[in-house]
Amino acid sequence: MDNGYFIVEFKHRHAKPERTFTQRALLIHDTWHKWAMPIWNGLNCRTTNGKYADKPYIRNNKCFRIYLRKGVELRMTKPEFMQFCYDNKNTIESMIASAKGERRLRPSIDRIDSSGHYSIDNIRIVTVHDNVSKPRK
Question: Is the pTM higher than 0.85?
Answer without folding.
Answer: no
